[in-house]
User: What shape does this take?
Amino acid sequence: MRTILKLGKQEHRFIDRISELSGENVYSCYQCGRCSAGCPMAFEMDILPNQLIRLVQLGEEEALIASKTLFICASCFTCQSRCPKGINIANVAEAIRYLAEPKGKDHFGPDEVPAELADELP
Amino acid sequence: MNGNGKKKRIGVFVCHCGVNIAGVVDVERVAKALEGYSGVSFSTHYIYMCSEPGQNMILETIREEKLDSIIVAACSPTLHEKTFQSVIELAGLNPYQVEIANIREQDSWVHSDKEKATLKAIKIVKSMVEKVLQNESLEPIRVGVTRRALVIGAGISGIQSALDIADHGYEVLLVEKNPSIGGHMIQLSETFPTLDCSQCIMTPKMVEASRHPNIRILTYHEVESISGYVGNFKVKIRKKPRFVDPDKCTMCADCEDVCPQIVSDEFNMGLSFRKAIYLPFPQAVPGTYTLDIENCLGLLPIRCGKCKEVCEPDAINYDDQETVFEEEVGAVVVSTGYDLYDLNHLGEFGGEKYEDVINGLEFERILSASGPTGGEVRRPSDGKVPKNVVFIQCCGSRDPENHNPYCSKICCMYTSKHAMLYKHHVPDGNATVFYIDVRTGGKNFEEFYQRTIDEDQVLYVRGKVSKVYKEGDKIIVWGVDTLTGRKIEMEADLVVLAMSMVQTDGVNELLKKLRISSDANGWLSEAHPKLRPVESLNAGFYLAGCAHGPKDIPETVSQASAAVAKVGDLFAQEQLLHEPTVVPVDEDLCSGCGICVTICPYSARELDKEKGVVKVNEVLCEGCGACAAACPSGAAQQRNQTDDQIFSMVRAILRG
Amino acid sequence: MKLHYYPGCTLKEKTTNLDESTYAAMKMLGYELVEPENWTCCGAEFPLNEEKIVGLAAPARILRQVEMEGGDKVVTACAFCFNVLKQTHIALLNDPLKQKRINAYLKDDIRIDPVTKERTTDFPEYRGDVQVLHLLEFIQKEIGYEKVRSLIRRDLGNLRAAPYYGCRLLRPKGETGIDEPDDPSIFEEFLESIGIGVVDFPFKQECCGSYLSVSLPDAASEVSYRILRSAKLNGADMVVLSCPLCYYNLDRRQDRIREKFLEFTGMPVLFFTQILAWALGVEAEILGLDQHFFDPRPVLGITDKAEVAS
Ligand SMILES: Cc1cc2nc3c(=O)[nH]c(=O)nc-3n(C[C@H](O)[C@H](O)[C@H](O)COP(=O)(O)OP(=O)(O)OC[C@H]3O[C@@H](n4cnc5c(N)ncnc54)[C@H](O)[C@@H]3O)c2cc1C
Ligand code: SF4
Ligand code: SF4
Assistant: This one.
């Protein structure tokens, strides 16, 4: 795989938009990986939480929108509680989901919950 | 008019400072406006007054025009007051006959309206003329120097400082709060990057210090308070009762054998036990037992008293008391070292819950030939030889959100050392290091680290660990390998945490007593981060070792020697000069109300009860003027900043 | 004593055992719970998106109602509702602009009485003065463990409970949590006060799998299983918790967990209010213990009819 790294206007607009929506400074991540190390759902993810932030830093909007991770994050905030830079990755994931939605990427809505669960599921 | 009622001949020199001033202020007009102003005999302007031609022009003008005082209208006095004082000294004038009118920081840099800025410059210069008219010629206050130093803290930095000062031929008091000197270095096993045995290189230094005729070692002592000023400090030192006479103790260990009180051993980081009467470690200096009163059953024979009974040389004295005595010194080296960040801050690693999750110093003791496991690597919980050891770097460091923002600097290297030494002890074991970055910026450090990987096959995994917990007999570590993008879960028999270095407990209180400052992380602040790295801003105090920030031994020793070079500078002076612009007392006016005594931040003023007036220790006075402003009777007048001077300056400004 | 209590929808429709046991326990402790009039769903998730501010309207409306009724605090038993209300409270407190924008929405509220068809408009502004407390906090801060201890009727000393915090009581780290995210003790203290043995286990703050039990049921089973297994390994007789979703994943889904992890033999999972009410002497029938997948009655020693020890 070859990636041509380009940080042009479009990429910066994307990074800034993510920062704005999430309220997080994605530039400040120094890629320690702690978020991924503690993530309870990491074993199911195609890209790890630290890689998610990394791809935002690289302006890789498409790769992010295509990733399964967006909908595996359980918003448990374990990463946020231990990140040395105080980054709330759940918020960043939510911001990407928000941008992904108009592009036809949404997970499941309440109407897709199987009927046999709907009675019980909080 | 000067002090003698003679009319003054004042010269005014207006500086352009390139365009810094001249770009906003019409310097020519300022110079013109001062011509003929009361007392001004000469007025001119020049592009750079501080340049050599500028200085020469001032010098020549003073001679030609027979000036007796000058005003330089230029930048802030903090920059060039000293420069121009020496210029007029060369011309044979008293340095206190120059004043700087600040028309840059207080005018051209903060205004853009040229007309108004020029008028303001004229007012500023005129007000300085009024001040100079009444300036007296002053002589600096001269004080002697006590050529004797105090070193606080006797780790390698304190010991090195003491030895160097002593070798320069000066006396040293080496104060250490623990029963023995040695600090952390004596606890280490082998030291990177050369792997020499720490005790082997440290013990000779400790012995040398104890034998040096110029060094007085005061272990189990602490600094109680300090007063005075650079070159002339008075220190109160508190001796904690040791209950054992070091001169009589033969270290026979009879007392230790009978003592029933068993407590955890600090020297071995709690990995073994000692008695309430103990020798911290075999090579302790001074070589004497110490009775730890907090853990002793009680000195009364009815409660215990066993040790005293068996002590043949009769070295044990239950009546030993805490005493405080005073010493005079001229310089103070602060070398109080570091502590490690408390494991309890890391709840996600179980805090101190798990016996086999330890910090680096504990592992040093486990590796040490004289340690609690006799030099074999065995884990604390069950004494088994650990086959899988996980090392975690940056524990509490580089974490501005939850812990300490700074890098502890030495843990990359000691972790590399730990992994290497572990593999030397247990060649069939696995050592895994979790890291974020490996920082090896020291001589031969990178080579050392690479050996750990190349020859000892230590696995470095790039990622910060998030959780450590126990499941049955195993410790589980949750990490990540960011290089392959895999979340990692692994079993370990022992986990060694590279805990952040932090300021020593209790040093904050000491710093308050010494009136020296520390930075946001608690480390001692140097006077200038680049140009004055071993001095404190408070004159007479010097910094050495980890009290100033994380360091390895080579850097600690270099800093100690550098601090001593500065102590040498101080002790080489015949006399010290103190600014004469202090605030004396006019005894005729003083009512003895004592307001100034309470207000003075430097304890320079004292009420003379007999005379009913205040006395000033001029050497202590820093000339801040707080008392002058507070004195209700006008008895406290600062030299060359009297009320009269200030009023004339204000009047000049109001007149325009 | 009267106390504002926000139950939330799940407690009225699905996990009624949490709601009913809360009422029963608080009655024993001397409190009459008052639900804010016309309360609605809190939204279940605090909006993570700075632009989805409208998500704050529902929880803010609940807080305003409490304020209108003269309340200065509201207590919840559901960890999810607690989290949403508390985060809303903080967001409005720290950001006056947000508060203003939300009040602009709330101002236009119209309420139509279903019976009289009377319209209410012109609601007052929410001033942000309502304190949001989880019941565990209320017990710690206002009732006091001493008092709880003095009212205990049943001896649970031979049982060992694992306090399971999950996410919503502790995170996001900062002002929201009721304790330190990685070193909490409030749940343990609570359990001690009711006289039950406490088990320390390293998974107490791990995530239960949340709604992934719908989208990735196997993955959710695995994380839930690890929590239950850790509690068991550390000697727990039961897991005690406060969140309906955690309860769903850890109790109601134990059949799925067993399918995947054959060695798993099951574990009773109880709401903290159930064990509290039980300790305080409330009869078993009121506590909805029959609604659990893994029947907790045997471990509590309830065979037929519960005996109230006195
Ligand atoms: C695990 C570990 C391994 C290490 N390995 C190496 C290595 O291999 N190589 C290397 O170069 N460096 C190593 N270091 C670093 C080394 O320990 C330090 O550089 C060195 O010990 C610093 O010496 P110091 O004198 O500044 O401080 P310290 O050794 O801490 O000495 C300070 C002394 O001051 C005393 N003191 C403190 N407060 C007071 C007070 N108020 N009054 C009186 N006395 C006081 C203390 O009791 C102590 O004796 C290691 C550090 C750690 C944590
Ligand atoms: S824990 Fe924080 S700093 Fe570390 S990789 Fe994750 S987001 Fe970046
Ligand atoms: S020296 Fe290395 S291990 Fe220590 S804090 Fe710095 S980067 Fe981390």
Remarks:
- Helices of chain A lie at 9-22, 34-38, 49-57, 61-66, 78-82, 89-100, 115-118.
- The domain at 13-104 of chain A is CATH 1.10.1060.10 (Fumarate Reductase Iron-sulfur Protein; Chain B, domain 2).
- The interface with chain B takes residues 30-39, 42-43, 47-48, 50-51, 78, 82-86 of chain A (CB under 8 Å).
- The two ends of chain A are 43 Å apart (CA to CA).
